[in-house]
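# nightly structure sweep
# worker-07 picked up a monomer target from the shared queue
# config: single-sequence mode, recycle default, output format = structure tokens
# input follows
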Amino acid sequence: MKKIGVFGTGTVGKTIASKLIALGYEVKMGARSADNEKAAAWVKSSGDKASQGTFTDAAAFGDIVFNCTKGDISQDVIKLAAGNLEGKILIDISNPLDFSNGMPPTLIPALCNSNSLGEALQELLPGTHVVKTLNIVTSDVMVDAARCGGEATMLMAGNNAAAKKEVEAILRQFGWSDIIDLGNIRHARSTEMMLPVWLSVYLLNNNAFFGFKIVRP
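# output follows
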């Protein structure tokens, strides 16, 4: 079973990392400092398959790496770890959200419409297979698709077909059975721009446990 690195110590990072541990993977959680307190607490509660280190350490450890950092810092994080991501799969689940004016956040202008965070990370990592997925639901639904109350659709985008097959296998372990491969990483624009819709529904119902369903013949 492949080793996995997880960038980020927040709710999303911990949720993803904990699910991967439950599935039997060895997981290293990465942060700016090797002794990050949130990462240490997660390791303590997660057993002997869990470890922690810097972003660079997590990138070196993982055969596959999840980017669970906030979208406004993801590019800086990737620059720190880029040397250890060559030839690997980076599953990018972050969104380019700007919270500077409070809730609801807006999309960062330079990373929407004619660009996306997924594309920006792929440009920084020409030798890495960036796959955009899971960014259209809340973290608990990411790792347990049934939590949305029905059979929702998960979308993904990336340039490398073999990498997407590996990512699809993990998505299925997370309970996703209806998966659509949109094509190359440019389609990260579409999924990232679904976030305003997600936020509108969330704020209306004060409930994050939902997903999107693509109905087709």
